[in-house]
Fold:
Amino acid sequence: MSKEKKSCPYVAVGGQALMEGIMMRGPKGTAMACRLPDGTIDTEMKDFKSIRKKYKFFNIPFIRGVVSFIESMILGYKLLMESAEKTTIDDMESESDSKLDKWLSDHFGPKMMAAIGTVASVLGIGLAFVLFIWLPSFLFDKVVYGHIVHTTTFRPLFEGLLRIIIFVTYMFITSKMKEIHRVYMYHGAEHKTIFCFEHGHELTPENIMKEKRFHPRCGTSFIFVTIILSILISSVVAIIWPVLTKTRIVWILIKLLLLPVIMGIGFEFIQLAGKYPNKFTMLLSAPGLLMQRITTAEPDEAICEVAIAAMNAALTGEVPPKEENPEVSEANEAEGDSENGEAVPVPAENEDDN
Structure:
């Protein structure tokens, strides 16, 4: 008989993949760990306190789902931009600055990144609205209604299926990009590390690599659950009040009003699916888990080390001392030995070219 696993009490942990890094949220706070360009791991705790803990109203079931989604979007985007800035800083400094770069840096400084982030957020929200809300309604009116079907009762089903096709296609195309594929590798490491912790195993790269990378509490599953719920709830509305589906603008407003309700229900389901895995929850989670074959990738041990650093900090609230770059350390030791009278040869970079 195989040796029994260590029992691990249920502790709510979650995370997000970043640029060359991972964010983890645990009982001791939010931690971010990034692999810097010099090869070291930078780990830090982030000062984030959910409004759900401050005001009980925002922690009421179904309401907390909307609040959690908004907070996750804001925090996740902020840390994603921060990780991108950290992990590419060397490359940015190594390039020769143009006059425009210097002028922007002198006149705007840190505000420029905030402005770029704000513009990117607005454009991202606008693109999501066009692709997932406006476009399906537009195509139904121009292609389906009056040509294929002569009733608007099927509008929610058509729009929901089209949203799924757009989402899957978009994620598949982006997964082929080198930078995004790296993020998906960190996404896989995040899931594997959470599974390793939940199964009561020691957090080591070897143990993490053995775990599955498909987790039912993932944001990808949440998106699929909300799309499926939107089809079901919108279909009920269309059957009861068919007049609401006649005009595109009215129907878009109805969908926007239903969105918080759908998100609230979806959040509660995702929490139950992660806490109480059974045949029913696994069946409903299956589309999202299948989609994770695209949005996650198998990590290597170096990426797992970053995930471990973030998880340990989120669980303990303690940040390990900053690692020292091995190359810099060796150079410092060589310099120290030379000062003590011992001549230690240090090879020059690109020595063969000299």
Q: What stands out?
A: Confidence is low (pLDDT under 50) at residues 1-5, 90-97, 327-354. The longest helix spans residues 110-144. The chain has one domain: 14-87+108-316. The CA atoms of residues 89 and 95 lie 10 Å apart.
